[in-house]
Amino acid sequence: MGAYTGLQNFFKKSLVEVARNLDYEQDNLLILEGDLHSLEKLFPTTLKNIQSCYHHRDNRPPLQYAQDIVASWLVEDSFLQVLNSNGLNAKLNGADKNRKILANVRTSTSSDFIVSYNGNSRKLELMNSYTDYWVRNGVLDLRDSKYKSLTKEQSLLLAVSTTTKKFALFDFVKPIPARFIQSHDHYGGKPVYQIKITNEMMNDTTSHNITEAIKLHL
Questions:
Q1: In whole angstroms, how far apart are CA 151 and each of 4, 49, 155, 172, 188?
Q2: C-alpha span between 32 and 163 (Å, rounded)
Q3: DSSP letters of 138-207?
Q4: Is pTM beyond 0.85 here?
Q5: ∠74-16-38 over CA atoms, to 5°?
Q6: Fewer CB within 10 Å: C terminus or N terminus of the chain?
């Protein structure tokens, strides 16, 4: 289940309404509405960019991929408010921080946020699960080069399960063991690094718990 479908139950209102409240631009609203005709007519560059991202789409049709991307931005912007509380400071860091779908060649694996506390800063990646996959399998999948990128940047990874309302925080400043899978069917045959995630690693998803956990690593 992707972000667009999974977040229908996360927010108490429609995703289009959430996007409007966050002042998202018209092309993103059309994507959430599934209005490809208007998107092609008014924002041909955005549509062209969507169609160019064949590598990142996995097995998803272009519209579904774009809807998942915009929906994931909504949850990132919601968590940005959480990360800017309890004395913690955060700002968007990813290549898509301007909330524009970029062409395939311009996408990157940069972490989503930079979080700061007491003069110290770290990069932080947000990952959400909209199913019970983590609970059933005890593993978290990092596609393509994400695992290598997190390791190289020594980033934090905030993993949030929207179904169980639990989170885990991983710190890549130290090596995190992973199982490498050369070709994963669920991700269109892309390579995947699987890391362990157990119930014992999880905590209740509250603003206080998340910010306090992050502070311990800054």
A1: 28, 29, 7, 5, 23
A2: 22
A3: SEEEEETTHHHHHHHHT-EEEEEETTTTEEEEEETTS----EEEEEEGGGTTEEEEEEE--GGG-EE--H
A4: yes
A5: 115
A6: N
Which two structure tokens, joined as six digits, stand for 51?
Answer: 């169609």
Phi and psi at 206, nearest 5°, equal -125, 155
For 16, 61, 140, the CA distances from 209, given in Å and listed in that order, are 29, 37, 21
CA distances from 10 to 78, 91, 139, 169 (A): 11, 22, 22, 20
Name the DSSP class of 119.
T
Given a contact cutoff of 8 angstroms between Cβ atoms, the answer to whether 131 and 176 are in contact is no
Token pair belonging to 186: 């669920």
193 vs 153: CA distance, rounded Å:
16
CA distance linking residue 107 with residue 59, whole number of Å: 18
Please return the burial class of 5, using the count of CB atoms within 10 Å of its CB with bins 0-12, 13-18 and 19+. middle
Query: If we measure between CA atoms, which residue out of 17, 13, 47, 52 comes closest to residue 32?
Result: 17
Series of mean pLDDT values for 10-residue runs along the chain (218 residues)? 71 88 93 91 90 68 87 90 93 81 61 91 92 90 86 94 92 92 75 92 94 95
Cα 200 to Cα 80, 138, 167, 174: the distances in Å are 26, 11, 11, 19
